[in-house]
Design a protein that fits this description.
five-stranded mixed beta sheet, 22-stranded antiparallel barrel, single chain, mainly beta, 689 residues
């Protein structure tokens, strides 16, 4: 086989990237047509096809791989969110099946799948984030969103629950993988600029090149906004790139580099009284103390992909991440210097045939964290006297195997097993008695059934276990108290997915019996216990997403979640609902595209029911309905435009809340106000070659 590579991967990579106010650029060269071949007219007709990359990547390949999962998965093309504001992870994941994505402020979000990480009022837990299949989370399991650039993402893969076992993820929520563009798929030059309400500005430049043995992509972006609320501004500068080398026809080496410098102010949460009188104000103390969460992160990763035969894939990767965080809070300042490093190895062996698959996946991963934390008083946003100094170390080792066996054509059984070994060490230099060491070991099996109902649809069911060791922030609440245990869940899931040229749908029903869920609780007398393990909780619900062409120019998109998360015969909370997420959540969008240069898309974000603020179910945030409208289109020669209006009725609403144990029916600073009416417009251009 030829060792040359072609740029002609699935042409989703010709997607728009927007640019406003940029000077038009003229390209001096174009790729010449391939030389025609001279064929003797006495021979039979010959079909000539462009050569394909030896290491194929793209939306089509990803969908094909995820369709082999006996469980809920999804692939989101970037073009689904690029015809509008694309500044945060919430913008990118708004229509992701099974994902609840809500903005707290700026780039800070609540991201949850099946009730994962309900307790976290900051950052994220319970979902493993990946960039190009390489972990983004810290080794202790905590994750953040500032490092993710939606503009540099080609598509997003979502595995809900234990369906992420194939890549070693083990949390209740599963995993999300942000797949970067490469020099093979991206246009040689891409520009985008957008501007909007509350001082929002965003610019992006991408430069790509390739030849027969290598490809290169470099992207630079800047995103900033003053914020709708006082003390809610952010700015993020990102530089990223990757270079791929085809060492032979079946061996590829790819290097990823990324750097982000993010500054994000924090406005705090408000009481209901403050929400009614002055929702744009910051919470008391947040301005004076200059509350912020600033991050500088540098990430490097090296990935090798080897396909020694058409039925064997071997992948290995090494990564290193350096994080420096300055986190000013009203209660003090936290400074972190963290280093994560690790490797992952995975083998996929196809032993059967297309009609009777026999597929074996073997994998292992290891990661280490080493870091320091320093705490001090907050003197007007600057560090005062020292109040704490700790050294942190964490390790996590994962091994997993999964076997798919085609019993008869169209029916397959999947058997999976994962082992996790995690350790946490904390050395408290000011209070040595508060130092601790904790170890966690777990085994998670999985049994799945996959049925190809037709060429376009599949039904699936699985029974699986998940295992999640607590991160440092939720490990110990009081000195001398035993560390929290790992959270475990047994989940039953059934679903059906289908895709054709006219429609798509993805529906899954699940029920998880969780033991030791990490929650902030009180005892029967109301005394705060901090983050502890609940006894038994139930997470169950319905995940529904789909789209359909109502006629040639009219398409409907829908996203619905039903969340029923509750305690199960708890001594304090009985069978009350868990706080933090609404029972019902709906997104609807109607896309009308009469011409290539015009697409009009009204949409509705609707939370028909309230969301409990506390586990005792004494205080509730109201539901809301938001009307949005986007107009976009292509105007030729690589140009695209969009205008977007959000919350057109200027509805005053609560986007999300903090989570309390028992609010005792009293008002408190629990609410994050959602943005008011906003408008955004953007323009993008990419070269045609």
């Amino acid at each position: 086989m030829s060792t040359s590579r072609s740029k002609d991967e699935p042409i989703t990579c010709k997607r728009a990237r927007r640019s406003l106010g940029l000077i038009p650029i003229m390209l001096a060269s174009q790729t010449p047509d391939a030389a025609s071949q001279v064929v003797d007219t006495t021979l039979d007709a010959v079909e000539v096809h462009a050569s394909s990359p030896k290491m194929p990547e793209g939306v089509g390949l990803s969908r094909d791989q995820l369709s082999k999962r006996a469980g809920a998965t999804a692939v989101l093309e970037a073009k689904l969110y690029l015809d509008g504001r694309a500044a945060t992870v919430v913008d990118a994941l708004s229509y992701a099946p099974g994902v609840l994505a809500q903005t707290r402020y700026g780039q800070e979000a609540r991201l949850s799948i099946r009730g994962s990480g309900l307790q976290r009022g900051f950052l994220m837990r319970g979902i493993q984030l990946y960039q190009d299949g390489i972990p983004l989370n810290q080794t202790d399991g905590s994750g953040e969103f500032q490092s993710i650039d939606p503009l540099g993402t080609k598509f997003i893969e979502v595995w809900r629950g234990s369906n992420a076992l194939e890549y070693g993820a083990n949390g209740l929520g599963g995993a999300v993988n942000f797949v970067s563009s490469t020099g093979l798929g991206a246009p040689r030059l891409a520009l985008r600029n957008q501007a909007g309400s509350f001082g929002q500005l965003q610019s992006y430049v991408g430069i790509a090149t390739y030849d027969e043995s290598k490809d290169l992509l470099v992207t630079v972006s800047r995103s900033e906004q003053d914020g709708w609320r006082e003390q809610s501004a952010y700015e993020a500068d990102r530089l990223s790139g990757n270079v791929g080398l085809m060492l032979s026809g079946n061996l590829e080496l790819r290097l990823f580099l990324a750097h982000v410098d993010s500054k994000m102010q924090m406005p705090g949460s408000l009481t209901r009284a403050q929400l009614a009188s002055s929702p744009r104000k910051a919470a008391p103390g947040y301005v004076d103390q200059r509350a912020s969460n600033d991050l500088i992160q540098t990430r490097s990763a090296l990935r090798m992909t080897w396909r020694p035969s058409p039925k064997t894939d071997l992948t290995g990767s090494f990564f290193r991440v350096e994080r420096d965080r300055f986190h000013a809070m009203t209660v003090g300042i936290l400074e972190q210097d963290m280093r994560d490093a690790g490797f992952n190895a995975r083998a996929s062996l196809n032993l059967g045939s297309p009609s009777l698959p026999r597929r074996l996946i073997l994998g292992l991963g290891a990661a280490k964290l080493a870091g320091r934390e320093q705490r001090s008083t907050n003197i007007g946003g600057s560090a005062g006297s020292e109040t704490g100094r700790t050294t942190l170390r964490a390790e996590q080792d994962v091994a997993y195997a999964e076997y798919t066996h085609g019993v008869v054509p169209d029916w397959s059984i999947q058997l999976g097993l994962q082992t996790v070994s995690a350790e946490r060490w904390l050395i408290d230099h000011l209070q040595p008695t508060s130092s601790y060491e904790a170890a966690f070991d777990g085994v998670s099996p999985k049994l799945g059934l996959l049925h190809d109902v037709s060429q376009d649809s599949q039904a699936f069911a699985n029974l699986s276990k998940s295992f999640e060791a607590p991160p440092f922030a939720e490990l110990v609440f009081k000195p001398g108290r035993a560390p929290t245990r790992a959270q475990e869940a047994l989940t039953l899931e059934v679903g059906w997915r289908s895709r054709s040229q006219s429609y798509t749908w993805d529906v899954a029903i699940y029920r998880s019996r969780v033991r030791g869920e990490l929650l902030s609780l009180t005892d029967a007398s109301g005394v705060a216990l901090g983050t502890v393990n609940a006894d038994r909780t139930i997470h169950q619900g319905l995940e529904l997403s789909g789209s359909a062409f109502l006629d040639a120019d009219l398409q409907l998109r829908a996203h619905y979640l039903y969340n029923d998360f509750r305690f199960h015969q708890d001594i304090t909370y009985e069978n009350r609902r868990l706080a933090g997420v609404p029972a019902h959540y709906v997104r609807l969008e109607l896309q009308w595209k009469p011409k290539p240069w015009l697409q009009v898309s009204p949409s509705l974000e609707w939370q028909p029911s309230g969301a409990w603020v506390d586990h005792a179910n004494t205080v509730e945030a109201d539901g809301f309905a938001l009307l949005n409208l986007t107009a976009s289109g292509e105007i030729g020669n690589g140009w695209r435009w969009f205008v977007e209006g959000r919350n057109l009725a200027d509805r005053r609403y609560v986007s999300t809340t903090t989570v309390q144990a028992n609010a005792h029916s009293r008002d408190g600073a629990y609410y994050f106000p959602g943005d008011g009416r906003a408008f955004y417009l953007g323009l993008s251009w990419n070269s045609s070659s």
